[in-house]
Design brief:
With 369 residues, this protein is of the alpha/beta class. It is 35% helix and 14% strand.
Length: 369
């Protein structure tokens, strides 16, 4: 039996296989008016195609918990009824193909109010419909706008915002919620000393820098059913300390192990392990499996289930990651954009049983004869 196509049970939820769709921003929602942040027919088609292709879990893109938390004005949001209702039909479409619907809740922090990446990737000023970024400290990301340093009251409101969006995600029918703590966005920027220069209870020591992340997790876990899992996406390294020529202090794989222990104690069920995004000039040598060792390190040191990501493109490669004990699932991004039916073909490659929809299986099976 292929490990890739063995079900994974987290709490009471059984996920049919371990090929999952990673959250990928599409920047395709309305940017103003009553439909701001509302999923469209594009999102329905995009997210429903992957479970038809055999993905066992499909995670909706980074979805903002408030308007100023969007990466771009065209991001999805989950702070009002209209957005919640639109997500409901997407959830139903994912479930109809036997997959688990998941959603990543996020606030982009100092990397908000940006243009679509295929246009300019520049900061969109308030005069053009943008807004001022916020962060733990008034430190800009690269050439973007200097963020507003959050007050204690604003931090507590953000914790409530995450909880409110989690409630809406549950009402829409999602079965997994993931807290986005990676890629230099708000939670990640509290964790890393490269971006958090605060001197109060949310900065300085390692324990203080973890405080906001754990408060968000606690607030989400408090409104999420006990029998359903909560994930946390992390950037396991800023890629600063790996470069001996870079003297900046950053977040490391060892820090991620310490974080994983705390997240487990606070009710997180799986660590979705990515890397980078904290500084624009980090030196990263990317290649197949380049982020997998960080997932393996956290899993082996703490026992927390992990998801591995990053340039995983071949069925046997994905299978080997699981059979070697480096991760419990693989999350595919670009490869599922290239081929929504990658899981079905991978099942055939690994002598597992594909799960084609009946309408497709009829044709596929006839062609074998």
């Amino acid at each position: 039996m292929s490990s890739l196509f063995t079900p994974l049970t987290l709490r009471s939820l059984q996920i049919p296989n371990r090929v999952w769709m990673s959250p990928m921003c599409m920047y395709s929602a309305a940017s103003e008016g009553p439909d701001t942040g509302v999923p469209t027919d594009f999102h329905l088609t995009h997210l429903a195609a992957r479970p038809a292709g055999g993905a066992g879990l499909v995670m909706a893109e980074a979805t903002a918990v408030r308007p100023d938390g969007r990466i771009t004005p065209w991001d999805l949001g989950l702070w009002n009824d209209r957005q919640q209702e639109a997500f409901t039909r997407i959830v139903e479409a994912i479930k109809a193909h036997g997959a688990v619907p998941a959603i990543q809740l996020a606030h982009a922090g100092r990397k908000t109010s940006m243009d679509k990446p295929w246009l300019s990737d520049r900061y969109v000023p308030e005069a053009e419909g943008g807004w001022q970024p916020v962060a733990p400290s008034a430190i800009a990301f690269g050439g973007l706008a200097v963020p507003h340093e959050l007050t204690l009251e604003e931090i507590q409101q953000l914790v409530r915002d995450f909880a409110d969006s989690a409630r809406r995600a549950l009402a829409a029918g999602f079965q997994v919620v993931e807290v986005h703590g990676a890629h230099g966005f708000l939670i990640n920027s509290f964790l890393s000393p490269a971006s958090n220069h605060r001197t109060d209870a949310y900065g300085g020591s390692f324990e203080n820098r973890l405080r906001f992340a754990l408060e968000v997790v606690d607030a989400v876990r408090a409104v999420w059913p006990e029998d359903l899992p909560v994930f946390f996406r992390t950037s396991a390294t800023d890629w600063l300390t790996e470069n001996p020529e870079d003297e900046r202090e950053g977040w490391t794989g060892d820090d991620t192990v310490r974080l994983a222990k705390e997240l487990t104690a606070h009710g997180v069920d799986l660590l979705d392990v990515s890397t980078g995004g904290m500084v624009p000039d980090a030196k990263i040598v990317a290649g197949p499996n380049y982020q997998v060792p960080f997932a393996a390190q956290a899993r082996q040191a703490t026992g927390i289930p992990t998801g591995a990501v990053g340039i995983i493109t071949e069925p046997q490669q994905a299978e080997d990651i699981l059979t070697s004990g480096q991760a419990d699932a693989v999350l595919l991004g670009r490869e599922l954009l290239r081929n929504p039916y990658w899981p079905q073909h991978a099942a055939l490659t690994l002598d597992a049983e594909p799960t084609w929809p009946d309408q497709y299986a009829y044709v596929v099976e006839r062609r074998k004869r």
